[in-house]
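Issue 218. Parser rejects a valid record. Input:
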Amino acid sequence: YSIAFPELTFPVVTFLKNFKKQIKSSMHSNEIAQLIQQLNSNSNYIIQHRNNVEYSPKEIEKLDLFLNDKQNTKESPLRKYYLKQLSIRTLNKQDDTLAFKEATNNENEEEEYSDDEYSDDE
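Output the parser choked on:
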């Protein structure tokens, strides 16, 4: 929520665009493209709100309050993207944990079954 966000992200977006050209995996390339899109969206969001500001860059106290009220509402494009990605990763992690537990339980059941086979032979 910095008033300088568009200027700060310019070198990052430039780097990501060049990096994206070097990536051979379409999945990773798409993820980088989404990130670039979200950074640009957020820059436009900041610029839109910055155009309504009636104070100069020298007024540091007012700059610190820039979009302060918006921080708690979580309505910036980049914040929405972050929260969406976080929930996706959390769901994937839960799925992975569940799959691991199921696989572990299946292995334990197979071991118990094979132990029973050996005990019958004795």
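Fixed in the parser; the record now loads. The CA atoms of residues 108 and 114 lie 10 Å apart.
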